[in-house]
Protein backbone atom coordinates (compact mmCIF):
# COMPACT_ATOMS: atom_id res chain seq x y z
CA UNK A 1 0.00 0.00 0.00
CA UNK A 2 1.41 3.37 -0.98
CA UNK A 3 1.48 6.34 1.31
CA UNK A 4 -1.15 7.91 -0.91
CA UNK A 5 -3.47 4.92 -0.45
CA UNK A 6 -3.05 4.83 3.35
CA UNK A 7 -6.38 4.40 5.14
CA UNK A 8 -7.68 7.59 6.69
CA UNK A 9 -8.03 7.45 10.46
CA UNK A 10 -9.72 10.41 12.14
CA UNK A 11 -8.11 11.88 15.22
CA UNK A 12 -10.08 11.08 18.37
CA UNK A 13 -10.92 14.51 19.84
CA UNK A 14 -13.83 16.34 21.40
CA UNK A 15 -15.11 19.47 19.59
CA UNK A 16 -13.84 22.77 20.97
CA UNK A 17 -16.11 24.13 23.68
CA UNK A 18 -17.61 20.73 24.48
CA UNK A 19 -16.55 18.08 26.98
CA UNK A 20 -17.08 14.47 27.96
CA UNK A 21 -18.48 13.81 31.41
CA UNK A 22 -18.78 10.60 33.40
CA UNK A 23 -18.95 9.03 36.82
CA UNK A 24 -19.07 11.18 39.93
CA UNK A 25 -19.96 14.45 38.18
CA UNK A 26 -22.99 12.98 36.42
CA UNK A 27 -24.19 11.20 39.55
CA UNK A 28 -23.82 14.39 41.62
CA UNK A 29 -25.59 16.46 38.96
CA UNK A 30 -28.47 13.99 38.71
CA UNK A 31 -28.92 14.03 42.49
CA UNK A 32 -28.86 17.84 42.54
CA UNK A 33 -31.40 18.09 39.72
CA UNK A 34 -33.72 15.68 41.51
CA UNK A 35 -33.60 17.80 44.67
CA UNK A 36 -34.27 21.02 42.75
CA UNK A 37 -37.12 19.59 40.66
CA UNK A 38 -38.67 18.10 43.82
CA UNK A 39 -38.93 21.70 45.08
CA UNK A 40 -40.49 22.83 41.80
CA UNK A 41 -42.98 19.95 41.93
CA UNK A 42 -43.86 20.72 45.55
CA UNK A 43 -45.02 24.18 44.41
CA UNK A 44 -47.36 22.56 41.86
CA UNK A 45 -45.20 22.88 38.75
CA UNK A 46 -45.38 20.07 36.16
CA UNK A 47 -42.52 18.85 33.93
CA UNK A 48 -42.31 19.77 30.25
CA UNK A 49 -39.79 18.56 27.69
CA UNK A 50 -39.37 20.34 24.36
CA UNK A 51 -37.20 19.32 21.37
CA UNK A 52 -33.52 20.26 21.19
CA UNK A 53 -34.24 21.92 17.83
CA UNK A 54 -36.64 24.79 17.21
CA UNK A 55 -37.35 26.69 14.01
CA UNK A 56 -34.94 29.59 14.12
CA UNK A 57 -37.56 32.28 13.61
CA UNK A 58 -39.43 30.91 16.66
CA UNK A 59 -36.39 31.47 18.88
CA UNK A 60 -36.75 35.18 18.32
CA UNK A 61 -33.33 36.34 19.43
CA UNK A 62 -31.59 35.01 16.32
CA UNK A 63 -33.16 35.32 12.89
CA UNK A 64 -32.05 33.86 9.54
CA UNK A 65 -30.15 36.03 7.12
CA UNK A 66 -29.55 35.33 3.45
CA UNK A 67 -27.10 32.46 3.91
CA UNK A 68 -27.43 31.22 7.50
CA UNK A 69 -28.76 32.40 10.88
CA UNK A 70 -26.73 34.90 12.86
CA UNK A 71 -23.93 33.72 15.09
CA UNK A 72 -24.87 32.67 18.57
CA UNK A 73 -26.78 29.49 17.79
CA UNK A 74 -25.96 26.22 16.02
CA UNK A 75 -28.18 26.01 12.97
CA UNK A 76 -28.91 23.83 9.96
CA UNK A 77 -31.29 23.98 7.05
CA UNK A 78 -33.98 21.29 6.76
CA UNK A 79 -34.87 19.60 3.47
CA UNK A 80 -37.75 22.08 3.07
CA UNK A 81 -35.17 24.91 3.28
CA UNK A 82 -36.37 26.07 6.69
CA UNK A 83 -33.70 27.00 9.24
CA UNK A 84 -33.64 25.08 12.53
CA UNK A 85 -31.43 25.87 15.52
CA UNK A 86 -30.43 24.09 18.68
CA UNK A 87 -32.19 25.84 21.56
CA UNK A 88 -30.00 28.37 23.40
CA UNK A 89 -32.24 28.36 26.51
CA UNK A 90 -35.44 26.69 27.77
CA UNK A 91 -37.56 29.85 27.84
CA UNK A 92 -37.91 30.49 24.10
CA UNK A 93 -39.22 26.93 23.52
CA UNK A 94 -41.68 27.48 26.39
CA UNK A 95 -43.03 30.61 24.69
CA UNK A 96 -43.51 28.67 21.45
CA UNK A 97 -45.24 25.80 23.28
CA UNK A 98 -47.61 28.12 25.15
CA UNK A 99 -48.52 30.00 21.97
CA UNK A 100 -49.09 26.76 20.05
CA UNK A 101 -51.35 25.22 22.73
CA UNK A 102 -52.67 28.42 24.26
CA UNK A 103 -56.40 27.65 24.29
CA UNK A 104 -55.99 24.19 25.81
CA UNK A 105 -53.64 25.10 28.65
CA UNK A 106 -54.70 26.04 32.18
CA UNK A 107 -53.85 29.63 33.07
CA UNK A 108 -51.52 30.13 34.79
CA UNK A 109 -49.50 27.38 33.12
CA UNK A 110 -46.85 26.22 35.57
CA UNK A 111 -44.01 24.11 34.22
CA UNK A 112 -40.44 23.14 35.04
CA UNK A 113 -37.88 21.86 32.57
CA UNK A 114 -34.42 20.31 32.68
CA UNK A 115 -32.34 20.04 29.55
CA UNK A 116 -29.18 20.71 27.60
CA UNK A 117 -28.85 24.03 25.78
CA UNK A 118 -26.28 25.18 23.22
CA UNK A 119 -24.55 28.51 22.60
CA UNK A 120 -22.41 29.10 19.52
CA UNK A 121 -20.08 31.41 21.43
CA UNK A 122 -16.35 31.56 22.03
CA UNK A 123 -15.50 29.01 24.73
CA UNK A 124 -13.21 29.76 27.65
CA UNK A 125 -12.23 28.45 31.08
CA UNK A 126 -15.38 27.09 32.69
CA UNK A 127 -17.44 28.38 29.76
CA UNK A 128 -18.81 25.67 27.47
CA UNK A 129 -20.98 25.62 24.39
CA UNK A 130 -23.25 22.96 25.88
CA UNK A 131 -24.61 22.98 29.42
CA UNK A 132 -27.63 22.08 31.55
CA UNK A 133 -30.39 24.42 32.62
CA UNK A 134 -33.08 23.78 35.24
CA UNK A 135 -35.99 26.22 34.90
CA UNK A 136 -39.42 26.85 36.39
CA UNK A 137 -41.88 29.35 34.90
CA UNK A 138 -45.42 30.52 35.52
CA UNK A 139 -47.18 31.81 32.38
CA UNK A 140 -50.42 33.76 32.73
CA UNK A 141 -49.91 35.06 36.28
CA UNK A 142 -49.48 38.84 36.73
CA UNK A 143 -47.13 40.62 39.15
CA UNK A 144 -46.40 40.89 41.98
CA UNK A 145 -47.61 37.72 43.72
CA UNK A 146 -46.41 35.23 41.12
CA UNK A 147 -43.00 36.95 41.29
CA UNK A 148 -42.99 36.60 45.08
CA UNK A 149 -43.70 32.89 44.78
CA UNK A 150 -40.87 32.44 42.25
CA UNK A 151 -38.44 34.25 44.58
CA UNK A 152 -39.43 31.96 47.46
CA UNK A 153 -39.16 28.84 45.32
CA UNK A 154 -35.80 30.02 43.95
CA UNK A 155 -34.44 30.30 47.51
CA UNK A 156 -35.81 26.86 48.41
CA UNK A 157 -34.26 25.34 45.28
CA UNK A 158 -30.81 26.75 46.02
CA UNK A 159 -30.98 25.36 49.55
CA UNK A 160 -32.17 21.98 48.27
CA UNK A 161 -29.24 21.93 45.87
CA UNK A 162 -26.89 21.93 48.86
CA UNK A 163 -26.22 25.58 49.75
CA UNK A 164 -26.85 26.23 53.47
CA UNK A 165 -28.93 29.20 54.54
CA UNK A 166 -26.61 32.14 55.03
CA UNK A 167 -24.32 31.14 52.16
CA UNK A 168 -26.54 32.60 49.43
CA UNK A 169 -28.95 35.44 48.79
CA UNK A 170 -31.60 35.95 46.12
CA UNK A 171 -31.09 39.53 44.94
CA UNK A 172 -34.08 41.32 43.40
CA UNK A 173 -34.38 44.43 41.29
CA UNK A 174 -37.11 45.62 38.92
CA UNK A 175 -37.25 46.97 35.38
CA UNK A 176 -39.88 49.50 36.51
CA UNK A 177 -37.51 50.87 39.14
CA UNK A 178 -34.88 51.28 36.44
CA UNK A 179 -37.41 52.96 34.15
CA UNK A 180 -38.23 55.33 37.00
CA UNK A 181 -34.55 56.18 37.37
CA UNK A 182 -34.19 56.81 33.63
CA UNK A 183 -37.30 59.03 33.67
CA UNK A 184 -36.05 61.15 36.58
CA UNK A 185 -32.56 61.37 35.09
CA UNK A 186 -33.93 62.46 31.70
CA UNK A 187 -32.72 59.35 29.85
CA UNK A 188 -35.98 57.70 28.80
CA UNK A 189 -36.43 59.18 25.31
CA UNK A 190 -35.40 57.59 22.02
CA UNK A 191 -32.79 60.27 21.47
CA UNK A 192 -31.09 59.17 24.72
CA UNK A 193 -30.91 55.47 23.70
CA UNK A 194 -27.12 55.59 23.32
CA UNK A 195 -26.58 57.37 26.63
CA UNK A 196 -28.98 54.98 28.31
CA UNK A 197 -27.06 51.92 27.14
CA UNK A 198 -23.69 53.31 28.26
CA UNK A 199 -25.24 54.29 31.61
CA UNK A 200 -26.55 50.77 32.23
CA UNK A 201 -23.19 49.28 31.30
CA UNK A 202 -21.45 51.63 33.70
CA UNK A 203 -23.85 50.73 36.54
CA UNK A 204 -23.20 47.04 35.90
CA UNK A 205 -19.48 47.58 36.65
CA UNK A 206 -20.00 48.79 40.23
CA UNK A 207 -18.64 45.61 41.83
CA UNK A 208 -15.51 45.69 39.69
CA UNK A 209 -14.72 49.41 39.45
CA UNK A 210 -16.28 50.85 42.60
CA UNK A 211 -18.15 54.15 42.85
CA UNK A 212 -15.27 56.28 41.52
CA UNK A 213 -14.89 54.17 38.39
CA UNK A 214 -18.62 54.15 37.69
CA UNK A 215 -18.80 57.92 38.24
CA UNK A 216 -16.10 58.42 35.61
CA UNK A 217 -17.98 56.19 33.13
CA UNK A 218 -21.16 58.17 33.72
CA UNK A 219 -19.25 61.31 32.78
CA UNK A 220 -16.60 61.78 30.08
CA UNK A 221 -15.01 58.36 30.44
CA UNK A 222 -12.35 56.38 32.24
CA UNK A 223 -8.73 55.41 31.61
CA UNK A 224 -7.79 52.01 33.05
CA UNK A 225 -4.41 50.91 34.44
CA UNK A 226 -3.22 49.84 30.99
CA UNK A 227 -3.87 53.30 29.56
CA UNK A 228 -6.93 52.29 27.51
CA UNK A 229 -9.70 54.89 27.55
CA UNK A 230 -13.42 53.99 27.65
CA UNK A 231 -15.87 56.68 26.55
CA UNK A 232 -18.48 57.58 29.15
CA UNK A 233 -22.21 58.30 28.98
CA UNK A 234 -21.56 62.09 29.00
CA UNK A 235 -24.18 62.68 31.69
CA UNK A 236 -24.41 66.03 33.42
CA UNK A 237 -23.35 66.30 37.04
CA UNK A 238 -26.97 66.33 38.22
CA UNK A 239 -27.84 63.27 36.11
CA UNK A 240 -24.83 61.36 37.42
CA UNK A 241 -25.79 62.32 41.00
CA UNK A 242 -29.25 60.76 40.51
CA UNK A 243 -27.76 57.51 39.13
CA UNK A 244 -25.21 57.26 41.93
CA UNK A 245 -27.90 57.94 44.56
CA UNK A 246 -30.04 55.18 43.03
CA UNK A 247 -27.21 52.63 43.32
CA UNK A 248 -26.49 53.72 46.89
CA UNK A 249 -30.14 53.27 47.92
CA UNK A 250 -29.70 49.56 48.76
CA UNK A 251 -30.06 49.34 52.54
CA UNK A 252 -29.91 46.61 55.15
CA UNK A 253 -33.64 45.96 54.98
CA UNK A 254 -36.01 45.89 52.01
CA UNK A 255 -38.30 48.34 53.77
CA UNK A 256 -35.49 50.88 54.18
CA UNK A 257 -34.47 50.46 50.53
CA UNK A 258 -38.01 51.14 49.33
CA UNK A 259 -38.20 54.20 51.58
CA UNK A 260 -34.90 55.55 50.17
CA UNK A 261 -36.07 54.96 46.59
CA UNK A 262 -39.23 56.98 47.10
CA UNK A 263 -37.10 60.11 47.53
CA UNK A 264 -35.19 59.38 44.31
CA UNK A 265 -37.71 58.01 41.75
CA UNK A 266 -41.06 58.63 43.45
CA UNK A 267 -41.89 61.42 40.99
CA UNK A 268 -41.98 58.93 38.10
CA UNK A 269 -45.11 56.89 37.28
CA UNK A 270 -42.94 53.90 36.34
CA UNK A 271 -40.97 54.30 39.55
CA UNK A 272 -44.14 54.41 41.65
CA UNK A 273 -45.41 51.23 39.96
CA UNK A 274 -42.11 49.46 40.64
CA UNK A 275 -42.09 50.61 44.26
CA UNK A 276 -45.64 49.31 44.77
CA UNK A 277 -44.69 45.89 43.41
CA UNK A 278 -41.51 45.73 45.49
CA UNK A 279 -43.38 46.76 48.65
CA UNK A 280 -46.00 44.03 48.10
CA UNK A 281 -43.28 41.43 47.48
CA UNK A 282 -41.25 42.49 50.52
CA UNK A 283 -44.27 42.34 52.80
CA UNK A 284 -45.25 38.81 51.72
CA UNK A 285 -41.67 37.54 51.78
CA UNK A 286 -41.11 38.83 55.29
CA UNK A 287 -44.38 37.33 56.54
CA UNK A 288 -43.36 33.90 55.22
CA UNK A 289 -39.85 33.91 56.69
CA UNK A 290 -37.91 34.99 53.60
CA UNK A 291 -36.16 37.95 55.17
CA UNK A 292 -33.25 40.00 53.83
CA UNK A 293 -30.75 37.24 54.63
CA UNK A 294 -32.47 35.13 51.96
CA UNK A 295 -34.17 37.57 49.55
CA UNK A 296 -32.78 41.11 49.28
CA UNK A 297 -33.83 44.09 47.19
CA UNK A 298 -30.52 45.07 45.55
CA UNK A 299 -30.28 47.94 43.09
CA UNK A 300 -26.89 46.83 41.82
CA UNK A 301 -28.67 44.19 39.68
CA UNK A 302 -28.56 45.71 36.23
CA UNK A 303 -27.74 42.90 33.81
CA UNK A 304 -30.90 41.57 32.14
CA UNK A 305 -33.07 44.59 32.86
CA UNK A 306 -33.22 45.43 29.15
CA UNK A 307 -34.83 42.01 28.55
CA UNK A 308 -37.14 41.69 31.54
CA UNK A 309 -40.34 43.71 31.99
CA UNK A 310 -40.65 43.61 35.80
CA UNK A 311 -38.82 42.01 38.73
CA UNK A 312 -35.48 40.34 38.01
CA UNK A 313 -33.79 37.77 40.25
CA UNK A 314 -30.20 36.69 40.73
CA UNK A 315 -29.03 33.87 43.01
CA UNK A 316 -25.69 34.89 44.48
CA UNK A 317 -23.35 32.70 46.52
CA UNK A 318 -21.92 34.74 49.39
CA UNK A 319 -19.21 32.37 50.64
CA UNK A 320 -15.59 32.49 49.49
CA UNK A 321 -13.39 29.65 48.30
CA UNK A 322 -9.66 29.51 47.62
CA UNK A 323 -8.34 29.23 44.08
CA UNK A 324 -5.35 27.10 43.06
CA UNK A 325 -3.02 29.80 44.45
CA UNK A 326 -4.85 30.08 47.76
CA UNK A 327 -6.45 33.43 46.94
CA UNK A 328 -10.06 34.05 48.07
CA UNK A 329 -12.60 33.86 45.25
CA UNK A 330 -16.37 34.30 45.16
CA UNK A 331 -18.40 32.38 42.59
CA UNK A 332 -21.19 34.96 42.66
CA UNK A 333 -24.24 34.32 40.49
CA UNK A 334 -25.42 30.73 40.02
CA UNK A 335 -28.83 31.45 38.53
CA UNK A 336 -31.28 34.12 37.53
CA UNK A 337 -34.72 34.92 36.23
CA UNK A 338 -37.44 37.50 36.14
CA UNK A 339 -40.65 38.70 34.54
CA UNK A 340 -40.92 38.72 30.74
CA UNK A 341 -44.45 39.67 29.71
CA UNK A 342 -43.61 40.24 26.03
CA UNK A 343 -42.20 36.85 25.06
CA UNK A 344 -45.40 35.05 24.04
CA UNK A 345 -46.63 38.27 22.44
CA UNK A 346 -44.35 37.59 19.44
CA UNK A 347 -46.63 34.67 18.56
CA UNK A 348 -50.05 35.74 19.86
CA UNK A 349 -49.99 39.49 19.32
CA UNK A 350 -51.21 39.97 22.88
CA UNK A 351 -49.32 40.44 26.13
CA UNK A 352 -49.16 37.28 28.26
CA UNK A 353 -47.67 37.75 31.74
CA UNK A 354 -44.86 35.32 32.61
CA UNK A 355 -42.18 34.97 35.27
CA UNK A 356 -39.57 32.31 35.98
CA UNK A 357 -36.18 31.34 37.36
CA UNK A 358 -33.28 29.20 36.20
CA UNK A 359 -30.62 27.45 38.31
CA UNK A 360 -27.16 27.23 36.74
CA UNK A 361 -26.60 23.62 37.77
CA UNK A 362 -23.09 23.23 36.31
CA UNK A 363 -21.78 26.41 37.95
CA UNK A 364 -23.46 25.65 41.27
CA UNK A 365 -22.06 22.11 41.28
CA UNK A 366 -18.60 23.49 40.51
CA UNK A 367 -18.85 25.98 43.39
CA UNK A 368 -19.85 23.33 45.90
CA UNK A 369 -17.15 20.98 44.64
CA UNK A 370 -14.52 23.71 44.99
CA UNK A 371 -15.58 24.46 48.56
CA UNK A 372 -16.06 20.89 49.72
CA UNK A 373 -13.24 19.25 47.76
CA UNK A 374 -13.51 16.37 45.31
CA UNK A 375 -16.95 14.95 44.65
CA UNK A 376 -17.78 11.87 46.70
CA UNK A 377 -16.56 8.88 44.80
CA UNK A 378 -19.43 6.77 43.57
CA UNK A 379 -19.44 3.14 44.68
CA UNK A 380 -19.20 0.68 41.85
CA UNK A 381 -21.27 -2.51 41.47
CA UNK A 382 -20.74 -5.76 43.33
CA UNK A 383 -18.66 -7.98 41.02
CA UNK A 384 -19.58 -11.66 40.65
CA UNK A 385 -16.38 -13.40 39.56
CA UNK A 386 -16.28 -16.22 37.02
CA UNK A 387 -14.30 -19.47 37.45
CA UNK A 388 -16.10 -21.70 34.92
CA UNK A 389 -17.78 -20.31 31.79
CA UNK A 390 -20.02 -23.39 31.71
CA UNK A 391 -21.59 -22.12 34.96
CA UNK A 392 -22.40 -18.65 33.60
CA UNK A 393 -26.12 -19.11 34.36
CA UNK A 394 -25.28 -19.66 38.05
CA UNK A 395 -23.21 -16.48 38.18
CA UNK A 396 -25.90 -14.47 36.40
CA UNK A 397 -28.47 -15.79 38.88
CA UNK A 398 -26.38 -14.41 41.76
CA UNK A 399 -26.23 -10.99 40.12
CA UNK A 400 -29.97 -11.10 39.39
CA UNK A 401 -30.75 -11.84 43.04
CA UNK A 402 -28.65 -8.88 44.15
CA UNK A 403 -30.26 -6.54 41.61
CA UNK A 404 -33.73 -7.69 42.68
CA UNK A 405 -32.76 -6.64 46.21
CA UNK A 406 -31.76 -3.16 45.01
CA UNK A 407 -27.99 -3.79 44.97
CA UNK A 408 -25.92 -2.88 41.91
CA UNK A 409 -24.26 -6.02 40.57
CA UNK A 410 -22.64 -7.39 37.47
CA UNK A 411 -20.97 -10.59 36.29
CA UNK A 412 -17.42 -10.24 35.00
CA UNK A 413 -17.57 -11.12 31.29
CA UNK A 414 -13.95 -10.57 30.32
CA UNK A 415 -12.64 -14.11 30.93
CA UNK A 416 -11.82 -16.36 33.89
CA UNK A 417 -8.37 -15.04 34.91
CA UNK A 418 -8.88 -14.23 38.59
CA UNK A 419 -6.11 -11.63 38.75
CA UNK A 420 -7.63 -9.67 35.86
CA UNK A 421 -11.03 -9.87 37.54
CA UNK A 422 -9.66 -8.34 40.73
CA UNK A 423 -7.94 -5.57 38.76
CA UNK A 424 -11.22 -4.89 36.98
CA UNK A 425 -13.11 -4.76 40.29
CA UNK A 426 -10.54 -2.29 41.61
CA UNK A 427 -10.88 0.00 38.58
CA UNK A 428 -14.66 -0.15 38.90
CA UNK A 429 -14.45 0.84 42.59
CA UNK A 430 -16.42 -2.28 43.43
CA UNK A 431 -17.14 -2.61 47.17
CA UNK A 432 -17.49 -6.41 47.18
CA UNK A 433 -16.44 -9.37 45.01
CA UNK A 434 -18.39 -12.64 45.05
CA UNK A 435 -16.28 -15.78 44.63
CA UNK A 436 -17.53 -19.32 44.09
CA UNK A 437 -15.09 -21.91 42.81
CA UNK A 438 -15.63 -25.67 42.74
CA UNK A 439 -14.86 -26.12 46.45
CA UNK A 440 -17.29 -23.39 47.50
CA UNK A 441 -19.96 -24.79 45.18
CA UNK A 442 -19.55 -28.30 46.59
CA UNK A 443 -20.01 -26.92 50.12
CA UNK A 444 -22.98 -24.73 49.14
CA UNK A 445 -21.02 -21.60 50.03
CA UNK A 446 -19.75 -18.36 48.56
CA UNK A 447 -16.77 -16.19 49.46
CA UNK A 448 -17.29 -12.45 49.89
CA UNK A 449 -14.25 -10.21 49.53
CA UNK A 450 -14.59 -6.77 51.14
CA UNK A 451 -12.59 -4.75 48.61
CA UNK A 452 -12.87 -1.45 50.51
CA UNK A 453 -11.53 -2.94 53.75
CA UNK A 454 -8.99 -4.98 51.80
CA UNK A 455 -7.59 -1.88 50.13
CA UNK A 456 -7.22 -0.18 53.51
CA UNK A 457 -5.53 -3.15 55.15
CA UNK A 458 -3.18 -3.69 52.22
CA UNK A 459 -1.72 -0.24 52.88
CA UNK A 460 -1.20 -1.06 56.56
CA UNK A 461 0.25 -4.60 56.28
CA UNK A 462 3.66 -4.74 54.66
CA UNK A 463 4.18 -8.48 55.20
CA UNK A 464 2.43 -10.22 52.26
CA UNK A 465 2.66 -13.58 54.02
CA UNK A 466 0.79 -12.23 57.01
CA UNK A 467 -1.76 -10.70 54.66
CA UNK A 468 -2.41 -14.00 52.89
CA UNK A 469 -2.69 -15.93 56.15
CA UNK A 470 -4.97 -13.46 57.89
CA UNK A 471 -7.37 -12.26 55.14
CA UNK A 472 -9.75 -10.45 57.53
CA UNK A 473 -11.50 -8.84 54.57
CA UNK A 474 -12.74 -12.15 53.13
CA UNK A 475 -15.52 -14.24 54.69
CA UNK A 476 -17.63 -17.28 53.81
CA UNK A 477 -21.42 -17.43 53.76
CA UNK A 478 -24.08 -19.96 52.74
CA UNK A 479 -25.12 -19.52 49.10
CA UNK A 480 -28.75 -18.95 50.09
CA UNK A 481 -27.63 -16.06 52.33
CA UNK A 482 -26.00 -14.17 49.42
CA UNK A 483 -28.13 -11.00 49.64
CA UNK A 484 -28.04 -10.87 53.43
CA UNK A 485 -24.25 -11.33 53.52
CA UNK A 486 -23.63 -8.63 50.88
CA UNK A 487 -25.87 -6.18 52.70
CA UNK A 488 -24.01 -6.83 55.95
CA UNK A 489 -20.66 -6.24 54.27
CA UNK A 490 -21.86 -3.05 52.56
CA UNK A 491 -23.20 -1.79 55.88
CA UNK A 492 -19.65 -1.68 57.26
CA UNK A 493 -19.00 1.35 55.06
Automatic annotation (TrEMBL):
It catalyses: tRNA(His) + L-histidine + ATP = L-histidyl-tRNA(His) + AMP + diphosphate + H(+). Residues 32-381 form the Aminoacyl-transfer RNA synthetases class-II family profile domain. The keyword Ligase applies. Pfam families: HGTP_anticodon (PF03129), tRNA-synt_His (PF13393). It comes from the Bacteria. Keywords: Aminoacyl-tRNA synthetase, ATP-binding, Cytoplasm, Ligase, Nucleotide-binding, Protein biosynthesis. Its EC number is 6.1.1.21. It is found in: Cytoplasm. One of its GO terms (cellular component) is cytoplasm. It is an enzyme of class 6 (ligase). InterPro entries: aa-tRNA-synth_II, aa-tRNA-synth_II/BPL/LPL, Anticodon-bd, Anticodon-bd_dom_sf, His-tRNA-ligase, HisRS-like_core, HisRS/HisZ, HisRS_anticodon. L-histidine binds at residues 89-91, 119, 133, 137, 303, 307-308. PROSITE patterns: AA_TRNA_LIGASE_II. The keyword Protein biosynthesis applies. One of its GO terms (molecular function) is histidine-tRNA ligase activity. GO terms for biological process: histidyl-tRNA aminoacylation. Belongs to the class-II aminoacyl-tRNA synthetase family. PANTHER family: HISTIDINE--TRNA LIGASE, HISTIDYL-TRNA SYNTHETASE. Homodimer. This is Histidine--tRNA ligase.
Amino acid sequence: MTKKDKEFRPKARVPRGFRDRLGEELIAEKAMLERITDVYASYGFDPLETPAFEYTDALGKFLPDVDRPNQGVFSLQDDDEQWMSLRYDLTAPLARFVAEHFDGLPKPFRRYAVGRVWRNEKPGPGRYREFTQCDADSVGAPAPYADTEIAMMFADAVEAAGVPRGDYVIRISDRKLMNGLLDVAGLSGEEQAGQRLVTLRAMDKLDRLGTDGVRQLLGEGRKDDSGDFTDGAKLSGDQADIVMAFMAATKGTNEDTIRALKDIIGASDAGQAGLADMAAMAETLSALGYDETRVLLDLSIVRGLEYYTGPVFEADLTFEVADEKGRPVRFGSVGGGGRYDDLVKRFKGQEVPAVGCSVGVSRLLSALQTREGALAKASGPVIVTVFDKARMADYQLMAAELRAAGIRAEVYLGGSNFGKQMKYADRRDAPVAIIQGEDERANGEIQLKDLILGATLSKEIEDNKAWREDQPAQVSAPREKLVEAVREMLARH
